[in-house]
Amino acid sequence: MTRAQSQDQQPKKRERKRRGRGEGSIYFDQSAGRWCATVSRGVDARGKRRRKKVTGATKKEVQDELGKLQQHQPLADTSKLKVSEFLTSWLSTCEQKMSTRGYERREGLVRLHLQPHLGHLRLAHFAKLHVQQFHADLFKAGVPSATRKDAAAVLVTALNHAVEMDLISFNPATGVKRPRHIGQEMKVYDEMQVRQLLEAARAGRWYALFALVLGSGMRQGELLALEWRDVDFDGATVSVRRSVSFTRAGPMLKEPKSAAGRRTITLPPFVMEALDQHRKRMLAKGFIDRPVFCSGAGSFLFPQTLRQWIFTPLLEKAGLPKVRFHDLRHTHASTLLSKGYSIRAISARLGHSKVEMTLRVYSHLLPNDDATLAKGLQALYG
Q1: How confident is the model at residue 364 (pLDDT cuts 50, 70, 90)?
Q2: Contact in structure between 307 and 328 (CB atoms under 8 Å)
Q3: Count of beta carbons in the 10 Å neighbourhood of residue 127
């Protein structure tokens, strides 16, 4: 045995700690006295990754064998793989890449819609006809259009992954017309109804919450994530820095999706007065370091609690027609638009990234000034 071979068989101390560039998982097994490596061999019929272990007396032996295996990857055997099994395996890869809320939404769509309707099919035999029938079945079952649209998007994404993993040769959902989402009708209160709502809330502990949403147009998640350090009583402003979403793991704070979402809103005096009174009550309870609008225990206020135990009873007390809590944000925007205020200023107040978004949502609420324009032209040229 040459000196070079002897050195290759027994790794130096530094070699055990660092791997060469491109060598992957090559390592020296001290107990066996041999070089080892693992290489991925694709996935099996259930969508699980297969791995093969390679060993050798020298590091070069393992490198050579590893190179041969990596050049001859066999295609996965999908003849018996069910769609349900594939989706379960695919979800396990999604969990590491997505936010908790995003993953839970995707998992729910798979569990409640994709697997019950498509899970019994074999992935290798999955066709466009099955995709079309899936959309039709969800429609017949009365599944909301937004859910059907999301389920269709998840199916396309999952099957794209199947193509990438060589489980199928093409995505059968590509090219199939997806369901359209018909948005829920926007409902807004007029000025008199807003006054009724605020008057009904005035005597309760949540008056500041309703005054703020109607006076700022903030989103529900932004309101529930608000902290006292975000309220500037001297400048009469509130800064939107974060939002809260609620998952199985609990409340999750997140940054605004766009730079426009991170904003400072100037508040009218009636909102500042309401917040000042609310702050005094929270200070007396020792909750000044908690969210501005918190539960009786000082924790985050859950949306379901807000809607079911606070908002709905308040509407009944005020004698107002039922609307979504989010419609109070729409009410704020529509009131300003109806008065002819700048669409650009209102868009910034709402945290929209583009003015076009505001126009798309609220164009039907803009005042019709066509007759006024005609009068102006007559004065100029008539």
Answers
A1: confident
A2: no
A3: 11
Helix or strand (DSSP H, E) at 311: none
Which of 141, 218, 145 has its CA nearest to residue 180? 145
- C-alpha 122: how far from chain center: 30
pTM of model > 0.85: no
Q: Does residue 18 sit in the same domain as residue 58?
A: yes
| pLDDT tens-digit series, residues 115-162 | 999 999 999 999 999 999 999 999 999 999 999 999 999 999 999 999
For residues 288 and 350, membership in a common domain is answered with: yes
Residue 258's domain spans which residues? 191-365
Angle between helices 145-164 and 83-94 (to 10 degrees): 90
Q: Are residues 339 and 204 in the same domain?
A: yes
CATH of residue 242's domain is 1.10.443.10
- For the chain, the 3-state helix, strand and coil shares in percent, each to the nearest 5, are 50, 10, 35
Q: Give the chain's domain count.
A: 3
- Taking a C-beta distance cutoff of 8 angstroms, is the pair 305, 187 a contact? no
> Residue 371 and residue 363: Cα distance in Å, rounded?
18
Burial class (CB in 10 A: 0-12, 13-18, 19+), 370: exposed
Q: From CA 91, how far away is CA 155, in angstroms rounded?
A: 12
Give the DSSP letter of residue 111. I
CB contact at 8 A, 23 and 76:
no
- CB distance 87 to 119 below 8 Å: yes
Kindly state the tokens that stand for 298.
């000082």
